[in-house]
Amino acid sequence: MRSELRKLTVLPTPRWTAVVTVAAVMIAALVVAISGAGEDNLALLVGIGLPTWIASIVLGVWMSGLEYGQKTMRRTLTRNPNRLAVVGDKLAVALLAGVGLTVLATAVAIPLFSLASSGHELKVAAADTLDVGIGNLVNNIVYVVAGFSFGLVTRSMAGGMTAALAFFFVMDSLLTQIPVVGDYMLAAVSTEIFQGIVGNEIAGTDLEVNLARAIVVSVLWLAVFVGVSTLRFVRTDVE
Amino acid sequence: MSALVTFENLTKRYSSGTAVDDLSFEVPEGEVCGLLGPNGAGKTTAIRVLLGLAKPTSGSTTLLGVAPGDPAFGDAVRKVGTLIEGPALFARATARQNMQIEADALGLDKSKAKIDDLLKLVALDERADTRCGSFSLGMKQRLGLAISLMGEPRLVVLDEPTNGLDPAGIVEIRRLIEKLPERGTTVLVSSHLLAEIQLMCDRAAILQRGKLVADGTIANLISVDGKAGYSVRVEPSLVDQAAATLGRVGLETRPGDVGVLDVTGEIDNGVAISQPLAQAGIYVWELTPSKADLEQAFLRLTDESGRGGTVRMEPVYPASADQRKEAGNAV
Fold first, then answer.
1. Chain B contacts of A75, Cβ < 8 Å?
2. How many domains are contained in chain A?
């Protein structure tokens, strides 16, 4: 675990991901200061949600794909040949990074959005920003785990990133359009969980939420992601 | 003295073919042991199985007496330093940070002094805080070697540590490897560079197409082919005639470069070669004494492997450490 934390702190990708995420929050706050928050809370949802969502996928894929990109997996496994423990350590550190970054982005957004919206009629309450942050936090855990799994399955950082983005932005989103099946897609249940946490008003929708079912389906999705990727990792020879 | 590494009837097959075929040999403690063979001979695959990075198709290996899959294997492999197919470095981290990652992975506390010592050993102390992505290949190999020594290993496994290095870099790495037994570290080093193995190793196992073709001390491996001989250059069109002429007087010949024959046998001096050739009307252009070396032994042994099985130079362990040392010094 210590060596994974060391990689997180000394290698540049997590730092740059944090810088870009915070910069995106600040740009969103600037937009709010100029144009106002908007009645659909777009600045709030996109300003915190989208950057931390993408950052969570990046951090997840990075943590597993890094070793393949740098050809260091054999070094890692000769220090710890228990592959399940390696997956556990890496996933724990990836989650720590994803959660930490979402907390940081939310902490930056709360005062900035309040201040930026103060000159406009529609104010952004600190409590609302906090709710959005918490909703994102739960969803981002899903994105970190999924990104991590894609990196591990493809055994490549670039491959994992492409697969994860294609899954979330294309396949998963499109499949939610299919009746019944769509209700069980990750995008659909993630939206439900978010809506359940922040409430319909902030989420800008009045769709019915079945929070318990959404949580169970999300957990099942994560179990499949982690199970398949771990199985492949444990059973495959390392180049 | 115990064996730190054992391969027992190890076979590893891929869909594309057999990489290692019924390999058995051992690495005794306290020696520098070479794993020798051309590219594709199965050296890296054997090492990967040994370290638990690949699963064997059949047979087994042990590392410090423990097999991969055994609950104690984790402890065993952490006492082994590795450098497999080039140094596994995080290019965007500095040399020191790479070593800190290794120290953390080994659970070492207060590793700063140890890191400084090792960076000094490999002459990278002045570049400790430089990102290793900017290092030359030789510097990366040296850093990889330093990382492999981080945990005071009982054994280091080095796969082609001189690959891609210039002659000066090869000498640097060889000198570092030669020092390791003084630190109490046994070395298993694979290479396709015969001269390097001869210079740095006490013993070697020779692989060809995944099979072990010979195994023993360097001195014994060479002595199998150990007839020092001559290299004779004649008019290229007369090489076959020269070989036949020398064969008639009981000398063995092997084709060398164009117009060159390597001659071995009962040869007191060069006259034993030049005289029969002169009598046959073949003028000798050049006659050079040649010393028996591992290259000759390798060529002969790998030729023989096509016709037969493994050539064992001796029991796996000579009777005493002194004898082993003596055999090594005789090279």
1. 82, 88, 102, 147
2. 1
